[in-house]
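hiii, so i know i said id send this last week but things got crazy w the move. better late than never?? heres the sequnce for the chain we talked about at the cafe, plus the structure i predicted for it. fair warning i was half asleep when i ran it
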Amino acid sequence: MKIITKKEALNVAKPEGVDVTYYLFDEYEMHLNIQEPHTTQSWHHHEQIHETLFIIEGELLAEWRDGEEPKSQIVNAGDAIETENTPHTFSNNSDKQAKFLVIKQVLSGENKKEVLKNDKILD
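okay and structure toks below
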């Protein structure tokens, strides 16, 4: 078992209003983002990394480009997003902080749903 305490994690306060606590593992990364009210992240994308976001608290405006077509959707606590390799940004247009968990992985493209659903052995 591996445990990374909050004290051991890397914390970065970004100038765009997002406080990020990074938990780095050998094959993936998980980080907790706290985005301040009325802030917007820089547009970005990843060529190899797939990001999955889970909104814990608050509301964000997710914006992305599908080819050249701009798209957007409000996401709330309990919603999950897979950014794939699309250019994207997130804005917190509310008066409250938004908190979300991000998992970054380099995926193989194999369907592993059956393993994920069934790989539990009771001891």
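btw The chain has one domain: 10-118. thought thatd interest u
miss u guys!!
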